[in-house]
Design a protein that fits this description.
With 131 residues, the chain is mainly α. The chain is 70% helix and 0% strand. The longest helix is centred in the middle third of the chain and has 36 residues. The radius of gyration is 31 Å and the shape is elongated.
Length: 131
């Protein structure tokens, strides 16, 4: 019969790791008392000791800071992409008489203008594209 893996909560892990740090009982005794493998207790103890400084340094703020940095990075990439598209659009708009004749650029979808301008193609249309 196959056993499913146990999922221990943070409170349980902290309680076992603190009991291991106290040192009044051996890890083998703690393992049998809590029903956890000794290697797991060592891992939780190490994790608790490594993360103890973040409690006093504001560990929550550092986690939010990394998430904020990732968001800022994503936004900068989007700004860069939009700037390139805008530059292509402006370049194409200046040359609209050459490429389009009497059709004005706002009648075209910006995606078409950007793709056509990047390929160096001429876009000619006599009717408004569907929405």
């Amino acid at each position: 019969m196959k056993q499913t893996r146990k999922k221990h909560g943070a409170a349980f892990k902290a309680k076992v790791a603190l009991a291991a740090i106290k040192g009044d009982r051996t890890v083998a005794e703690l393992a049998s008392a809590y029903g956890v493998h000794p290697n797991q207790i060592y891992a939780w103890k190490k994790q608790l000791l490594d993360g103890a400084t973040s409690v006093f340094d504001g560990g929550v703020a550092t986690a939010e800071g990394t998430a904020g940095e990732a968001q800022v990075d994503l936004l900068y990439r989007q700004i860069g992409q939009l700037k390139v598209e805008n530059d292509l659009y402006e370049e194409f708009r200046v040359k609209q008489d050459t490429f389009l004749g009497s059709v004005t650029v706002p009648l075209l979808r910006p995606g078409l203008v950007t793709v056509a301008a990047s390929r160096g193609e001429t876009v000619r249309t006599g009717r408004r594209p569907p929405p």
